[in-house]
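Thread: Newbie trying to understand structure tokens

Hi all, I'm a second-year student working on a class project, and my supervisor (Dr. K.) asked me to get a predicted structure for one chain before our next meeting. I've only ever worked with sequences, so writing a 3D structure as a token string is new to me. If someone could post the tokens and maybe explain what I'm looking at, I'd be very grateful. Here's the chain:
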Amino acid sequence: MELVVRVPRRGGGAREALLIQGPAGWGECSPLPGYPCSYERARAAAEEAAFAGWPAPVRATVAVNALVATVEEAVAAAAAGYRCLKVKDPHLVAAVRDAVGPRIALRLDANGAWGVDEAVDAISRLAPYDLEYVEQPVASLDDLGRVRRRVNTPIAADECVRTVDDARRLDADLLVLKVQPLGGVRAALTIAEAAGVPAVVTSMMETSVGLAAGLALAAALPELPFACGLGTATALAADVVTDPLAPADGRLAVRRPVPDPALLDRYRVAAA
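---
Reply by user tm_fold:
Sure, no problem. This is what the structure looks like when written as tokens:
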């Protein structure tokens, strides 16, 4: 069975997803507008979830970070048990570090917005705030290596790695994995192995059906030294399951919630 749902997001807007049900369960295909993710790979990830299932987990819980946009959100997240915070505004780094202290890990995602010299300058200026890493400071794989060789802060790759060949060329300290852009949990595990660096699993703001695939990937990785970006169910104002994959004390229990028929009916998009 296949159906399209549209669930509301907090702050306005909605998240649309194609859900596929098969003998192994439910899968989600929901490329995020503006983010590099082919429909074919997203669909392959959903079909893997529905028809093949996922590898067995090697851990029962996964630590997750909190994405914060203000100092107040950072303080609240630390009080709620998160031990890792992520910001996207470099101007927020100093204030967040001052507010939460040195015991909370802090990372920055630049989304490939900088040039090489700009990235080196920005990362060097932020060095006193002990960033855990900077994610995708520049857009290309080659430029990522150029930045890494000029700074001391660890550098993570995200959008510039989509294939095993990309992973083998990687010159970075970490690799960010998202299930849908990589074509499924097994494909992501293969890419992580080829890269040979620690991996961090993150979401694309999916429903809990899609988040479950990311959680399965994080649970199956041989090593998982960093918190993952999978605590995003709270970004949605609703979900298609009655028990969303919401963190407790900064961690997610490894499980696979099942869509509720009433919620599927409520958020289902009528066929044209």
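A couple of things are worth pointing out once you decode it. The chain has one domain: 54-257. The radius of gyration is 18 Å. Feel free to ask follow-ups in this thread.
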